[in-house]
Specification:
The protein is mostly helical. The chain is 67% helix and 0% strand. It contains 12 helices and no strands. It is globular and about 55 Å long.
Length: 332
Amino acid sequence: MSKMQSRTVIACEDEADSRSIVVDKNERTQQIDHRDCMRVECQSQWNALVDKEQRATYKVQHSSARPKSSRTKLCDWAYQFMDSVGLDRGIVSITFSYFDRYVYSQIESVERKIDLVFMTSLYLAIKIHSFSELTFPAVKFSEITDGKFDQADITDMEISLLGVLGWHVNPPVPAMFLSVCNELCNYHATDKASLSRMWATAKFLIELSVYDVFFVDFNPSSAALAAVSVAANIHSIPADNVWDILDLEISRQSEQIELCTKRLQVIYNQWNFSTSAESKPVCHSPTGVSSTGESAKGRKAARRLDSLFQAEETRSHGVTERMSKKRAPSTV
């Protein structure tokens, strides 16, 4: 090879390397830009939810009409029903938003019709918020109650429920805030694998919080952030690292978050779950109401936690794949 040819080859190689560097830089820039856009979008969603939870229409107005019925029993049944028909468990939280806002707004006790209020709340929440192809008309819910309530009972209570709620049927619930936090971390955290189990545990804690009337008095965002804090502690992840990634304005509700964190930690300790579904947990009702079959419930809940681990790992992997597809095409 002549000197001229050699110089030409070297020049071509240098030019190719230069183009490769430029393309790689463009890919990284576009990925960073996309992450910045996602951060802005997620923070916008968070702020919108915070504004929404401050509205009086979504607050529980306390009265002397505190129901005596076991919240644990109602919650257990709702989760079991959602699992049996394959619907999203998050709808249970919306159900209790309707239920609590209705029951606590009443001047007189509604104990005699508490089951009807609850079944109608669940019926309404599914009708509005379920994306399943399955439909559950009022007559179907009448059948579910074994004839205790007929179709007219449910439709009449639905009208009463909507009137008390003022047709505000899209309440902010902890799971919505948790979802935004999860998205922020997935797009900005480098170690997604270690965080996936934390998010699964946080979601599990949110499900447990529905059992406890304590959280009725607190903002849903506070419950969500408390779940993140407790889950981070359970998995030995420094909470400060998570807050740095989230970069959310939470100082104004720090007292609420602290109280919710303490309560969720107590609930988790009472259920005494390890992060392995193979363990045999000892569980107690987080609301202090005794119930039968607790060891079986504990094993079922442990299996639920394990399924959340698997689902979150799958979801996190999917986010990583979507991120890689959004990179700039490699063209030379």
